């Protein structure tokens, strides 16, 4: 193998490894981003659930107070 061939193969190897590294980083970035979105959605859902629970509790207490009034 000549020096030119060795250099050519080395450059091909570097390009391939750079591509795979870029792909890996890209995948992990999007995976993290989608996990973050899911967590945000879950927190939003939990907040809505808590708000609904508070409204239901308030509704029950208002009904109970309305029944107490003669």
Question: In short, what is this structure?
Answer:
The chain is mainly alpha-helical. It is built from 1 helix and no strands.
Characterization of the model:
The chain is mostly helical and 70 residues long. It is 94% helix and 0% strand. It has one helix and no strands. It is rod-shaped. It starts with a helix and ends with a helix. The mean pLDDT is 84.
Global outline: rod-shaped
Largest sheet: none
* Arithmetic mean pLDDT: 84
Which residues form runs of ≥5 with pLDDT under 50? Answer: none
The total count of strands amounts to 0
Strand content: under 5%
Number of alpha- plus pi-helical segments: 1
What is the string of SSEs from the N terminus onward? H
End-to-end Cα distance, whole Å, is: 103 Å
The share of residues in helices is over 70%
By secondary-structure content and strand pairing, the structural class works out as: mainly alpha
- As a whole number of angstroms, the C-alpha radius of gyration is 30 Å
């Amino acid at each position: 193998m000549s020096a030119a061939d060795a250099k050519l193969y080395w450059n091909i190897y570097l390009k391939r490894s750079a591509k795979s590294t870029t792909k890996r980083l890209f995948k992990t970035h999007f995976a993290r981003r989608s996990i973050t979105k899911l967590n945000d959605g879950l927190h939003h859902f939990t907040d809505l659930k808590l708000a609904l629970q508070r409204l239901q509790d308030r509704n029950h207490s208002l009904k109970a107070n309305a029944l107490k009034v003669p």
